[in-house]
Design brief:
The protein has 115 residues and is an alpha/beta fold. 40% of the residues lie in helices and 33% in strands. It has 4 helices and 5 strands, in the order ββαβαβαβα. Strands 1-2-3-4-5 form a 5-stranded mixed beta sheet.
Amino acid sequence: MAGLQIAERQVGDVTILDLWGQITIGETSEALRNEITRLVDGSQKKILLHMAGVRQVDSSGLGNLVACFTSVKRKGGELKLVKLSERIQDLMLMTKLLTVFDVYDGEEQALGSFK
């Protein structure tokens, strides 16, 4: 079944969203955007997307990730990514989005990077 599952957890002052499934056009991208908006509106400024379970991201999904990043940054926050699959990392490299996002291989490293 296609879709995106999101589980939220807190480590210190960082909110981690564990993602499983796909971030593609339609409801999955909207669900992620709504979750990020809810966090930022609730004054959460440090957000880490744990993407180990994400199998697929399409162009719409990439666009939504950029929109989420921009929304968080506008509110004075930070949005970072951890555990990208090789396929998604290659896609982000080709689209030059690796220069936009802070991307980490491990959660500990990502958590330590927040100000």
